[in-house]
């Protein structure tokens, strides 16, 4: 029991340290936010919104997205060890987490996301999941939008100076004092598809819309 308590305590300390490191590091960015007002007004007027991003680009948005904590938003995060760290940081940022991915616990996490999105009206989703492949939108984003009647709002992060990890997604880390831009795309409203082919066309269209903003 004591060992379990110590492990939990150490994890919480690690999450807290990582959260503050990210916050302090992100304060060096010269941040510019574009086209937030339209979807935010839609949400404040009672609409449901699902923010959509590539796995490559979420890091630089962490500090800014803390402003949304007053809306009790939710983010799906895998049950991996890396996911544990990300979930800890997300929760300290004021976001709820639904734990699961296509490889483990995905159905339960998707149900939780839908329930929370219907209740609070705001959530975010990494469209290519925790493992990729890069540039491929998984069906979860479409399913979330349809089942919660939420508008999809893609957003993209760019930096004038950045490092790119040697990972499947070429993970973007802006360099200190870089000019970082978060740009929100137009809202995408989904209509209930009559066939599996129609559902797949929605997925492909989102992939095409967002694909041009991916750094390969």
Outline:
Helix 3 links the parallel strand 3 (74-77) and strand 4.
Walk me through what this model shows.
By secondary structure, the protein is an alpha/beta fold. It has helices spanning 2-26, 37-44, 81-92, 106-120, 140-148, 196-211; strands at 30-34, 48-53, 74-77, 96-99, 122-126, 150-159, 162-164, 172-174, 179-184. The protein has a single domain (2-211), classed as Glycerol-3-phosphate (1)-acyltransferase (3-Layer(aba) Sandwich), CATH 3.40.1130.10. It is built from six helices and nine strands, in the order H-E-H-E-E-H-E-H-E-H-E-E-E-E-H. The strands form two sheets. Strands 1-9-6-2-5-3-4 form a seven-stranded mixed β-sheet, with helices on both faces. A two-stranded antiparallel sheet has the order 7-8. Strand 7 and strand 8 form a beta hairpin. Helix 1 (2-26) packs across helix 3 (81-92) and helix 4 (106-120) packs parallel to helix 5. The chain is globular, with a radius of gyration of 17 Å.
Structure characteristics:
216 residues; alpha/beta; Glycerol-3-phosphate (1)-acyltransferase; 7-stranded mixed beta sheet; two-stranded antiparallel sheet; 39% helix; globular
Q: Strand order across the biggest sheet?
A: 1-9-6-2-5-3-4
Rg, please? 17 Å
The CATH superfamily label reads Glycerol-3-phosphate (1)-acyltransferase
Pick out the low-confidence regions. none
CATH fold title: Glycerol-3-phosphate (1)-acyltransferase
Query: In the CATH classification, which architecture applies?
Result: 3-Layer(aba) Sandwich
User: How would you describe the shape?
Assistant: globular
Number of strand elements: 9
Task: Classify the helix fraction into a percent range.
Answer: 25-40%
**Overall residue-averaged pLDDT value:** 91
SSE run: HEHEEHEHEHEEEEH
Structural class: alpha/beta
CATH class: Alpha Beta
Largest sheet: 7 strands, mixed
The amount of beta strand, in percent, is 15-25%
